Fold this protein.
Amino acid sequence: MQAFVKAIAAGAILIAGLPAARAWEPTKPVEIVVAAGAGGASDQMARMMQAAIQKNNLMKQPTVVSLKGGASGAEALIYMKSSDGDANKLLIAYSLIYMLPLSAKIPFNWRELTPVSVIALDQFVLWSSASKPYKSVKDFVEAAKAAPAPFKMGGTGSKREDHVLTAFIEKQTGAKFAYLPYKSGGEAATQLVGNHTESNVNNPSENLEVWRAGQVRALCVFDKERISYRAKVAGDLSWNDVPTCKEEGLDVQYLMLRAIFLPGKVTSEQKDFYVELFEKVTQTAEYKDYMEKQALKPIFLTGRDMVRFLEDDDALNKKLMTEAGFVAN
């Protein structure tokens, strides 16, 4: 009897020493949904997360990046909304989740999804072609004002972040722009390099390669402080060398969230799995390297902190959209 008791006790010790089994984890490939076209910042971020998860063995199942940029991103939002309870789908969200329902009156509200985490903040830069003579915001604005026809400003989508920033540049400077919407920031970059547009307000990542190639010029960043990264990126220039637009006399500021959402009606165990997963992603070398190379602001918010952030960000975007006249009646 004593031997039996010892055996039971030994078994209990062994069991206690084993790692706790997960309450839930995916049993099939996980789809990372991108509400934009190929080559844009969201697509690039999805590929980084896919690589980080795979290289660091953070999840047993593979991930598949799914581009659903149709109807200016509405395709992705409606796809996620119609996927209630499916914890094998993740949305890389940005301010589209606030803006598109306002401008296009699509039947979508981010509160219908399940917030997982905010994993970065994205900045915007005013870019011009390196073949143009203007090398400062002042020169650029003066050239735009003096032009016989409105300067062509490229951007991603209509009545979205890039378009809103263009409207506020017009409001502050009195210059006029013809805004040209493209399917992605990558396409907007290509059009600028080809001199089909005079400027764009792409995220740093979307113009990174053409900046490195000396084909575009970074005039200013739409933030209250300079980008922190000091490593040389384009010739002898670092992201920190790009002045803020306010320093250049253009007081326009805007930051965009990069966040992860699940569909609605998933379980708390399913949400917790992804909160843990993306917290691990933010600790990987791939994430840290991507943050610096793409000039993103690293951040990790989840739970109540994330919801508070979303509510405040929603209100700000609604205000900007209303002032720009982009809210549909």
